[in-house]
Design a protein that fits this description.
By secondary structure, the chain is of the alpha+beta class. The protein contains 15 helices and 30 strands. Helix 2 (about 10-25) crosses helix 14 (about 320-330), helix 4 (about 40-50) runs antiparallel to helix 5 (about 55-65) and helix 4 (about 40-50) runs parallel beside helix 9 (about 130-150).
């Protein structure tokens, strides 16, 4: 989503220009506005229109592209861009089979080259540089695919314009012949569909076959690609050794469209329960339904991130969104989320949603935004006109917490309604803290446990804690057997009957767990961490130096001990003499968001448009407790020592409920 954020920013001035043109030249046609925006390149575009003057359908397609071209941008330093991709292509060829660290190092070196600085040259509107020859070739190629592809014959003209016609598939993509680069590249097995009557013209089944081949070819590795220069050349992009969801979605669009399969990119600007967003694809079937899939990742018909709450789903388009153009022409400050006019709202086709009416007495007329929590602020997901203190937001996902915000002319955000939970029936439940009713809360995390964490955290399940008087543990006292895999820190009280022992350990015999443990602490009767000589299984998984037994005692929950064998590994301490241990704390492999001993935490609650502190506490174990917390409060826990992940929650029946 970082690339999406950057593109939103760079299109602001262009989108504002479009909006101003619309206000100032209401009598002019849209095509005339676009031709005027082309400046000295106007003759190239007029040449395209003249070229198709005798072909009404192709002329309509050319008009569509030109009318909606303002706002689409390319890198200004196109020679530098070309040189960069030439070098990148050669480097990626050499590191495809290398280990991740090696590949990362090579890409770091690539980004450090002078040629990689081409992006510093800024951006130029496509309408100012695109040539007549390029646009004509693109239109003819798109029509040729539409007319000949068995998977495009069901498309009407409007669908064709948004799927197969655009001359590029993502912003900042080079203006080149990407279709020929992708043509026949991932079609293994697709020809066999011709032998099956129900499948031979099915874009969904063609998409299934191509997506399988794409996945087998690029071997997707979801590690992100957090560099200033994104790889957008479609000849080079398949060779990038890792990426994020958006990277593979862009790749799938180019591959599918080159064969006439109508595919688009849908996205969530922000999840209902965490700050990040998500991107995936959808293919248009012969019945007019959009079938979702993850490019190179998941098959059509498999719901993306099933069970994870969505509040707003958008679709990337080539055409301008007229509502956004009106917003940009209003003269009001526009938040980053709406500075690009190239999207349409498809929420209603994905999730149950409702229109949300709000009242804010005394508010002036103008634009307001419904927003989700974003770190400690609020990120808008939809806008509406507020008139006489009322606004209605369309197609908002249920079962999430929202508030309504506005902006002053300098971009300062102001909350104008209390947060509210929108239940499954679309009813609002305002969250207003009751400071007359106070309670004590005990918290064990500052961020929800996500699926990516759970699969690793559960490896503690079945582990045992032992005490012995012999370093080989031929016999031992069983202190505890772990019966859960929660991604929190765990504390086990040691019974007095266990007595004093010299050797203490954590052992995991469950196959496939590799004795994964992030932190292990032995606590004395005065609640102090004990120290001794680290003992345990020597070595580490694949002999990596950053996963040895010492990592279980480095006070860093993001490092782990990972034994060289999948079962039977152990780690512990030799105290030099028999000692009594009062408690044992351990944390499984996770994300570092469980409460940590020694970290300083601050709890906040939301009131009157701002976060208010309830004080600070130092973690003295596996949880942190705060007193005098108002009932019915929206809460946020922050680790003042380290880390950045944090998420709003309510506290219900002794449990943190994440929103």
């Amino acid at each position: 989503m970082r690339k999406l954020f950057k593109i939103m920013i760079i299109t602001l001035s262009v989108a504002l220009l479009i909006g101003c043109e619309k206000q100032q030249q209401q009598s002019a046609s849209k095509i005339e506005q676009a031709l005027k925006a082309a400046g000295s390149n106007r003759a190239e575009l007029e040449q395209v229109l003249e070229h198709y003057s005798g072909d009404s359908l192709r002329l309509a397609a050319a008009t569509f592209l030109i009318e909606n071209m303002p706002g689409h941008v390319s890198y200004r330093d196109r020679d530098g861009e070309k040189a960069f991709y030439h070098i990148a292509d050669s480097l990626f060829e050499t590191i495809s089979e290398e280990a991740y660290d090696r590949r990362r190092a090579v890409i770091d070196s690539l980004m450090g080259l002078k040629v990689a600085q081409f992006w510093n040259g800024g951006y130029v509107q496509d309408i100012e540089i695109i040539s007549a020859d390029f646009l004509v070739a693109n239109i003819d190629s798109a029509f040729n695919i539409w007319e000949r592809s068995p998977w495009a014959r069901h498309l009407d003209f409007d669908e064709f314009c948004e799927t197969l016609l655009p001359y590029k598939t993502t912003e900042l993509q080079p203006l080149d012949n990407w279709r020929s680069q992708m043509k026949n590249r991932y079609t293994a097995g697709i020809a066999n569909l011709a032998y099956c009557d129900p499948y031979r013209h099915s874009p969904v089944y063609a998409c299934i076959e191509m997506n399988k081949t794409l996945r087998d070819s690029v071997k997707p590795d979801i590690r992100g690609f957090d560099y200033a220069v994104q790889i957008l050349d479609m000849g080079v992009k398949p060779k990038v050794p890792f990426g994020n969801c958006g990277h593979y979605a862009d790749l799938a669009i180019a591959a599918m469209r080159s064969e006439g399969i109508p595919v688009v990119k849908d996205y969530i600007p922000i999840w209902s329960f965490r700050t990040l967003g998500h991107e995936w694809n959808a293919v248009l079937d012969t019945e007019g339904r959009w079938v979702e899939f993850g490019g190179a990742l998941s098959e059509p018909g498999v719901e993306e991130k099933i069970g994870e709450r969505k509040s707003k789903v958008l679709r990337r388009t080539y055409a301008h969104n007229p509502r956004v153009l009106e917003l940009l022409a209003s003269g009001e400050y526009v938040p980053v989320s709406f500075r690009s006019p190239f999207f349409t709202d498809v929420t209603a086709s994905y999730i149950p949603c409702t229109d949300v009416e709000v009242e804010a007495a005394g508010e002036e007329d103008g634009y307001a935004y419904i927003a989700l929590s974003d770190w400690t602020g609020w990120r808008p997901i939809e806008f509406a006109r507020m008139e006489e203190g009322k606004a209605t937001f369309r197609d908002i996902g249920t079962n999430s917490i929202y508030t309504v915000v506005r902006y002053d002319s300098y971009g300062a955000q102001r909350v104008v309604t209390p947060p509210f939970r929108l239940d499954r029936k679309g009813e609002k439940h305002y969250i207003i803290p009751d400071e007359s009713r106070l309670r004590t809360v005990t918290l064990n995390r500052k961020f929800p446990v996500l699926p990516s964490v759970t699969s690793a955290a559960v490896r503690i399940n079945g582990a045992e804690l032992h005490a012995a008087d012999n370093p080989d543990f031929p016999s031992y006292r069983l202190i505890h057997k772990v019966a859960d895999g929660f991604a929190t820190a765990h504390e086990v009280k040691v019974a007095d009957t266990i007595g004093a022992h010299r050797y203490w350990r954590y052992k995991q015999d469950t196959p496939g767990t590799y004795c994964n443990v992030a932190e292990l602490k032995f606590i004395d009767a005065d609640n102090r961490e004990m120290s001794g000589k680290i003992i345990g299984t020597p070595g580490a998984y694949k002999e990596v130096p950053y996963a040895t037994k010492e990592k279980a005692f480095d006070s860093d929950p993001l490092t782990i001990f990972e034994a060289p064998t999948d079962a039977g590994g152990w780690v512990g301490m030799d105290f030099g003499e028999p000692v009594r241990v009062a408690a044992i704390e351990f944390t499984g492999r996770g994300d570092g968001n469980a409460i940590e001993r020694g970290d300083l935490y601050e709890l906040f609650y939301f009131k009157d448009g701002a976060w208010r502190s309830l004080g600070q506490k130092t973690g003295e174990g596996v949880a942190v407790t705060f007193d005098n917390v108002p009932e019915n409060a929206l809460l946020l826990l922050r680790d003042r020592t380290k880390g950045k992940d944090e998420r709003i929650f309510t506290y219900e029946n002794g449990e943190q409920i994440w929103w």
